[in-house]
From TrEMBL:
Top-level taxon of origin: Eukaryota
Organism field: Arabidopsis lyrata subsp. lyrata
InterPro entries: F-box_BR-signaling, KIB1-4_b-propeller
Domain KIB1-4 beta-propeller as annotated: residue spans: 59-320
Protein's name according to its UniProt entry: KIB1-4 beta-propeller domain-containing protein
Length: 361
């Protein structure tokens, strides 16, 4: 434990007289990059640009010092408000809460090197705790198309890499269940669901993912969805309900008068959400998740009670990628947010929702 604790670096936030939000409330925010303001002996001084889904506006954090050990490192994933980055030279993983705008001081935790060059850009990370400094926590990540990587920093000095068969390949999701104390993921085609209990010899257990009460959609509608790109996501509600989500997006291209490709973009066509039955463990289709709202991005999906966060819309999904918007489950209405106000290049680099897990500092 002493070895692990020695890797924790605490940073202090800076203040100035510019128009920064010195004490942003603790809401979910979308990280949209930042701007360099200067340098200090500890690292670069930056302010972070964020999207506030409650007001649908861009806001800025106060000044933050980004430590030198994080300089130039790509951000590879986010879970419970913490963001993971990867050192390009020695492949060390760092996790930090420096991007949480409501914190006045931040921490960086250095995990062991993963030992190989990642083979996928679709990195996913999941933490078993929102306070990895105080808690005995575990990390699961997908750095490779054929393996899951797990680490228990208080116990292990290295990552354990778990081989998976291609047909059972973890796809776009990876989540930790506080209710069941395991990591969950789905197969590449969404036919299987797997659980990984790190107290059980690091062996995933697979089961068929059974979907019930499929929505009544005309045949032409199913044909349209079959042509869409689909990703699968798992998310757990604050009360411990488990949901399985299908996200359908459609690629749209436009040609100029000479037939040359002018642009390509994708639109969200539909979400389907299934709630797990507590008895049968089947997942049943629903268009009503009540007061809940779900946040999907390249970070670990999370679910909040809308009534706890004024102006969040219940029974909705807030998403980023391929566009930024919200989707009402009852009406099936997709509402993209205005990109003109957001600056899309930074969204490509840092498409992470930050989970509001800690008290305001």
């Amino acid at each position: 434990m002493a070895l692990f604790l020695s890797r924790v670096l605490t940073l202090s936030g800076r203040r100035d007289n510019a128009r920064f939000f010195s004490s942003l409330p603790q809401f979910p925010y979308l990280l949209m990059g930042g701007k360099k303001l200067g340098e200090s002996p500890e690292g670069k001084i930056r302010k972070h640009r964020l999207f506030d889904p409650t007001t649908e506006e861009t806001v800025y954090s106060k000044e933050k010092t980004i430590p030198k050990k994080l300089n130039g490192q790509p951000l590879v994933g986010a879970s419970q408000g913490w963001i993971a980055s990867l050192e390009n030279k020695d492949l060390t993983v760092h996790i930090t809460d420096v991007y949480k705008p409501w914190l006045s001081s931040s921490k960086v935790i250095s995990l062991p090197s993963i030992g190989f060059k990642p083979s996928t850009h679709a990195t996913r990370v999941s933490f078993s705790s929102s306070d990895p400094v105080q808690d005995d926590f575990s990390v699961a990540a997908k750095f490779d198309e054929y393996r899951l990587s797990v680490c228990r920093p208080y116990w292990d000095s290295k990552w354990t890499h778990i081989e998976t068969a291609y047909s059972l390949l973890p796809a776009s999701d990876l989540m930790y269940s506080k209710r069941d104390k395991v990591f969950y993921f789905t197969s590449f085609k969404g036919n299987y669901m797997a659980s990984l209990d790190l107290t059980n010899n690091f062996e995933p257990e697979y089961q068929h993912l059974r979907l019930r009460n499929l929505p009544k959609i005309p045949e032409v509608g199913w044909e349209m969805l079959d042509k869409c790109f689909m990703t699968h996501h798992l998310v757990e509600s604050p009360s411990g309900e488990l949901f399985f989500i299908k996200w359908y997006t459609q690629c749209i291209h436009k040609e100029d008068k000479d037939g040359d490709l002018e642009f390509i973009h994708s639109n969200t066509k539909r979400f389907m959400i299934f709630r797990q039955d507590g008895m049968s463990k089947d997942f049943c289709y629903t268009e009503d998740i009540g007061d809940l709202c779900i946040f999907l991005s390249k970070s670990e999906a999370f679910c909040l009670s809308a009534s706890m966060y004024p102006r969040l819309k219940p029974n909705s999904i807030y998403y980023i990628g391929p566009r930024l918007g919200s989707y009402n489950l009852a009406s099936g209405t997709d509402r993209p947010f205005t990109f003109d106000r957001l600056g899309d290049p930074s969204l490509v680099r840092t498409p992470f929702w930050l989970h509001p897990t800690d008290p305001i500092a």
